[in-house]
Structure formats: structure tokens, C-alpha cells
Amino acid sequence: MFNTLARNTKSLTMAIRGHRLFCTLSFFPLLLAALLLFSLISKSVQAETMVSAARIGSTPDYTRFTLESNIPIQYSLIMLDNPGRVVIDLENTALTSSLKNLPNEIKASDPFIKAIRIGRFKPHILRLVFDLKADVVPRAFTIDPTHEFGHRLVVDIYAADKAAHLGQHDELDKLVSSLTKKKPVPESPANTAPIAHKILHAAQRTKPHPTRIIIVAIDAGHGGKDPGAPGPNGAHEKDITLAISKKLKEKINKEPNMRAVLTRDGDYYMSLPMRRAKARRLNADLFVSVHADAAKRKSARGSSVYTLSQGGATSTMASWLAKKENSVDGNLMGGIDLVSKSSDIKEILIDLSLNATINDSTALAQHVLNEIGSINRLHKKQVERAPFAVLKSPDIPSILVETAFLSNPDDEKKLKTDSFQSKMAKAMLTGIKRYLATSPALARTSIAQVE
Prior knowledge:
Elements: H1 2-47, E1 51-58, E2 62-69, E3 75-80, E4 85-91, H2 97-100, E5 113-122, E6 125-132, E7 136-143, E8 151-159, H3 166-180, H4 193-204, E9 214-220, H5 237-252, E10 258-262, H6 272-281, E11 286-291, E12 304-308, H7 316-326, H8 343-372, E13 384-386, E14 398-402, H9 409-415, H10 418-438
Parallel strand pairs: 9-10, 9-11, 11-14, 12-13
Antiparallel strand pairs: 1-2, 2-8, 3-4, 4-6, 5-6, 7-8, 12-14
């Protein structure tokens, strides 16, 4: 009896297990398909890029298009002809309200872009098409997040005739950075001595012909999407600097044998390297960057004048200001053609020119500081040095003038007045003239032309 019961129980158990196995095997394909579908959906949702801001800014030389997103944008960029178009494909990117509104951001006055069209090219590809007005050269790059911005995709659309030197800008960036960080210059081979002698002679500069026009590039700090420092009573640095720069230009242009040019003449964004590159294209002899920055301490007030430092900032304030200014745009660099030279010779040539230029810059800064001190309190009574990116032109004497601190209510009040702006512009002009009288500007000789 017990044997019969055991056999029946075993048979029943096997039958039940067989049924479960059958059910499991039958359900397995459905389960696998469901899991795969869920995985694909989850991956799609997780990988979707959300564009939170889309900005467009234009200058006479290029139009900048910026997308800000929660994760890095995967993209591709191509050019199409007949008619001319720039096409940007964004992978796994949602069509957010910021992107939908982008076509409305194009102004009729934009020199390069006629219109923007956006559509779903493929299920996972969002296509942006820029219809063009002229021949252009696009350049795209990404920027990592900062405390103010998320991931950014930046597309610069240059005029074709302005884009020839883009590759050279990065070359100069590496060279100047290595030298301003006190990197030892390799010992030059014997056959570089004649070249070094020639460039040193050029860097030391000779007195120009009396009839030559001295060109002063005036750089109004900040602009457009970058307002600069805010004042406690509503002033914006970009407005103050442009107003003073225009007054300085007007005064310079009244002087015999002098002419002023502005790196920006309106309220638009311009990167730091493009400011220097424009000064070079305009063949500037001097470069004056005008600012009205803010300090952490509200009590900070007065004016300062800065030149480029090779070994770092000369004070805590100089270091902080330089870091703040350079953070606006530290991804590109204006420069000169040194492609034909070896790396060792490039560093020797730029080092010689940079040293001579810093000496000239210091002399210019001292004269300007003396004159500003006669119309306003000085924050520092000596010329300050800091590694401002906008000052890194190796063959143009360059200074940065902090006219006053917008964070100080008294300074802000003065900076907003037409009379103080005019006095500041006049003081800068007088300082420039005194520099020219004691250390005459030279006919600029391009380093790249030295054989």
C-alpha cells in the first residue's frame, strides 16, 4: 500500500513539474520580448536630451548659436550647396519650446543666416537647417557645465574670408599659454640665432614715420548675453563700458595722426579671442580694454590698470578678477601665423616678442594710471598684473582699465554720469598720448613675416 502511494505521489509530482516547465517555456518568449521592449523604452527616455535654452548672437564677423542642455548633445554638422545651408543633426533630442522658438530669434539684419528650419529628420534625429545669405565656414565645439550654465553646444558661423586664421588661433593659444605659465623655453639650435636676432630687433620697435596713423583698438568689456557686473542700483557693466569706449573713440579721432576702432560698437556678445583677433585685423598699435567690474567686498572702490602677467597675478584681487573675466569664454584664441616654424622656434619668437610687448604695455599702463589718478581715487596705486585672456596678443601693447567698481554704490553713481565717463575717457587719452610721446609706437611687424 505504501509503495503504491509513493508511486502515485511521484507520478503526480512529475506531472505538476512538467506542467510548470511547459508553462514557463511557453511564457519565456513573451517575457523576453516584454523585458526587451521595456529596456529600449527606458534607454530612450534616459538618453533623451532636453534643451533648456537656445541663444543666437551676431557680430559683423560671425554669428554664434548656443544650445544649453541637461546632458551632452550628440551632434553632426554638414554643409549643403545650391542653396547654401548649414545642417546640424541632434541625436535623441526632444523638440522643446526653446528649440521651437529658435527660428523667431533670427533677425533680418543677421549678416549670414536668412532663416532656421527645424524638423524631425528621423525618429531619433532632430534636424536644424540654417538657410544662408553668404558664403560661410561653420565651427562647432562643446563646453562643459559651469555653476551658471549646463552642457553647451556652440556653433560659430564665420564669414568665409574671416575663417582662414581659425586654425592658427589654437596654435597661438598653446604657445602663449606655455610662456605665460613660465614654461622654460628650449635652448635654440645654432641656426635659429639669426631669426631670434631679427625678431628681437622687431620687438624692440623703431620710431615710426611722423605721418603714420597710430591705431588704438578700444575694447568695451562684455556685451549681449554677457552683461558683466551688476550695480546695486541697476547699472550693467556692458552699458558703462560701451559708453566710455565710444567717448574715448570720439576723443582719439579728434587727435592728429591717431584713429580709434571699437571691437564692438553695439550690445552684442563677442568672445575674448575674437576681440583680439579683430584688433589684429584692424592693424592696431595699442589695445585698451575698458571694464567696470565688481568685487566681493562692497567697500572696494576706485580705478586700476592691468597688464599681462607671465608669472601670475600680483595681488589676490588681480587673480580673482582675471579668473572671473576669463571664464566668459576661454575656449578660443586669436593669434598669428606661425605654422611654418618649428615648435622650438615658435616659442623663441613669441617669447621675445611677448617680453617686449609686456614692457611696452607696462609703460602705457603707468601713464594711463597716473592720469586716471588725477580724476578718481585709485584702488591700487601701482600697475597690476594678471593673466587676462584678452591681453594675450604677443605683439600689441595691451592694457585693461578697471574704471571703478560697480559693486560700490558711490562708484556706480559716478559711472552712470556722462561727466565722469567723459573725464575717464579724457584721462585715458592723455595717458596714451604721454606714452606715445615718451615711448613712440612702432610700425608693427608681423612675427609671421620674419624669415
